[in-house]
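Pilot study result, target chain (223 residues):
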Amino acid sequence: MIRIVQVVKKRATLKTQVYNFLREQIIMGAVKPGERLIEGKISEELEVSRSPIREAISMLVKDGLLLVNISGGVTVVQPTIKDFQHLYECRVEMEPLASYYAAQRRSQEQLETIQAYLLQMGKITETNNLKKVHDANVNFHEAIVGASVNPFLVSMIAQLHGVNSFYRKSFLEEKPLHVEKAMHEHQRIFQAIVDQDADEAKLLMKEHIENDYILFVRFSNQL
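Predicted structure:
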């Protein structure tokens, strides 16, 4: 595992802080697929006890980002195209549904938040900062899910987004033109939500996720 320079402060939310930090390291590729996580090393580098680390690791296993081996060791998951297919099968049903209800229920404040992330992604795209583009993209999708005002959808899709980011990080880096296409699709989805056209928002989000999956598979076949 790479040297971690960030020190996690010891507060009541220590488990959550460790979880968020390790999750970010995994999703953004600082800790590679197949790499082993060693509790003792993490404890020393983060200057925390092993207890919150074990709890954080347990949460990451449930998220599908870590795998407990037969030997008892913990490694970062090495996803396959089949894993991404299974993830897609969930997203293509759940996110369009969230978009449908977002179009019906969104408040003006939520609408402004969605628009802010859309504009942010457009500005960041021009700088070619892929890490920030990724974050703005996730924020846009999560803002729409939040506007559905359905806590069960919010909870389930939040887990999927973390795994999705992890699976397709290299795809976004290798295919920057995909970002421009995604931006156009985002704009259409946003407009449907503005117009409170729930059926259109659901359809456009479904097409958006389908297009993303098709491009991912096409890219994966070239590796």
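One observation from the pilot: The first strand starts at residue 36 and ends at 37. A full batch analysis is planned for the follow-on phase.
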